Amino acid sequence: MRYVRTALSGAVVLTLTLTGLTGLTGCGLKSGSPMVDDVAPGSVGRGEPLKGASLTVASKNFSENIILGHMIGLIFKAAGAEVLDRTNLPGSISARQAIVGGDADAMYDYTGTAWITYQGNQKPIVNPQEQWQAVHNADLKNGVTWLPQSTLDNTYTLAISKRNNAKYKLKTMSDLAALSQKDPSAVTLCVENEFASREDGLPGLEKAYGMKIPAGNIKKMDAGIIYTQVLKSDSCLLGEAYTTDGRIKAMDLDTLADDKHFFPNYNAAPEIHSATILKWPAIAGLLNPLSARLTTQIAQDLNAKVDVEGEDPHTVAKDWLIEQGFIKNG
């Protein structure tokens, strides 16, 4: 999904803000931090094909995308590049513009975000590979090259606590629509600001399922707070959630199936500034094996390390890359 992911706990946000981005000027980035890790090639990066390159990696400001951004940077570093870390940019648009404008060279983005939000389409393409191809082809004119996607699909869902769902027994979005028509006051939602306004978010979901949730029943908040509110309070019957979020399993939440397939596929794929990959074509060979390994389940596990266990995203990325053999400690 994602697209726009804005979730992190306060402590992690503070740490990343202080060590990463400190400001924006227009769509140009103002600052960043060099990656200083002493890493060496593993299964990728042998022969240091990026030796002499100076590359900037970006990400949006939610745990999963920050982890993926650090994975790119660490692989580039192991392949011989000097890497500037400009992960944790606020929202999808600023990160996207960094790639388009050449202020950043590479990041992981999501095909559904590109197809709907960046490229202005209204209906998703149901086949994931066809959607990726359409996104890839359309973005070439924007100076952006998409590398092959992963099976990691970070799409939207709505979560409900088992305590509350014992009463309502919701399994699908159609079940929710029926409840909203039968008892509108029962349906309270906690969502992020962007989900509340994006056409691939709540407004489109309501249209697709023929429901209208009263504005007073919709509360906007940071995604990290949503999960806690859904679990522990009665202010949110349901909350916006992401299918790769480790907190769903950790908090034992139920999620609703998108039985009308409204939400697009949000497969994660590297999005590269085209001039960069023309100059350094070895980038594809470095990142394609990584994308081939990434799955929704792996994302859930890695995200839980940050959002549930409180680990640092950079450490999580580095440990996993070493465990998988992509890179080694230098």
Helix content: 40-55%
Integer-rounded radius of gyration: 20 Å
Question: Which assembly state applies to the chains in this document?
Answer: single chain
Order of helices and strands: HEEEEEHEHEHHEEHHEHHEHEHEEHHHHE
Structural class: alpha+beta
Count of distinct strands: 15
| Largest sheet, spatial ordering of strands | 11-10-12-9-13
Number of helices: 15
Q: What is the averaged pLDDT score?
A: 90
Name the shape in a single word. Answer: globular
Alpha-carbon distance between the two ends: 35 Å
Please summarize the sheet with the most strands: 5 strands, mixed
Low-confidence stretches: 1-30
**In percent, how much strand structure appears in the residues?**
15-25%
Notes on the protein architecture:
- This protein is an alpha+beta fold and 330 residues long.
- It is built from 15 helices and 15 strands.
- The chain has helices spanning 10-19, 63-78, 91-101, 111-118, 128-139, 162-168, 173-182, 193-197, 202-209, 223-232, 246-250, 274-279, 282-293, 296-307, 313-324; strands spanning 24-25, 28-29, 33-34, 39-41, 54-60, 82-89, 106-110, 144-146, 156-161, 189-191, 218-220, 238-242, 253-255, 268-273, 327-329.
- The strands form five sheets. It has a five-stranded mixed sheet with strand order 11-10-12-9-13. A three-stranded mixed sheet has the order 3-6-5.
- Helix 2 packs across helix 15.
- The longest helix has 16 residues, at 63-78.
- Mean pLDDT is 90; it is low at 1-30.
